[in-house]
Amino acid sequence: RNGTVNNVLFDSIRGGDKVLLSDTTNVEATDATMITSFGTSGYSIGSNAGVNANTNTYVAWCASLPTDNASNTDGTITSVTKSNSFMSAVSYTGTGALGTVGHGLSAKPQLVIYKRRNAIDGWMTYNETSGATKYMIFNDTVAEAVSSVFFNNTEPTASVLTVNTGTNVN
Predict the structure, then answer these.
(1) What is the mean pLDDT of residues 141-147?
(2) How far apart are the two ends of the chain, measured CA to CA in Å?
(3) Which of 74, 129, 145, 149 has its CA 20 to 30 A from that of 38?
(4) For 151, what's the count of Cα atoms within 13 Å in the CB-facing half-sphere?
(5) How far apart are CA 39 and CA 61, in angstroms?
């Protein structure tokens, strides 16, 4: 909080050595010196100055999700999910064709944030208030826009997300 470094995101589906920067469009990076392990009651940090510099102050937002990665075949695209009653983390490999992805929740999600991990792309968002005909880019200052290329104008359900041909989501 008292320095000028990127906002870093980690999750236990990809592993502590996989890094996404939520304030950039960068691809996923690998760095084993940031988060060294996840445990049932927290995580261990490494020596990287981005997460552990002497005298710097940090803030972490954490969510407790199940410890096992679950294969999810609810949609036409198999995903790996970790979910509890109000949040899920989902990983899948896009097909480039209209499809559905299981999200692991038992209710329609109100907010979905997508990040293509292997290419420079913005963080696409769906939100319940705007609906599936609109999208916003999480890390950009552009206004909400209308397009069917990302969500095919199809609302999420209690089990799946619809992804269209837009490379940011599929």
Answers:
(1) 93
(2) 34
(3) 74
(4) 26
(5) 15
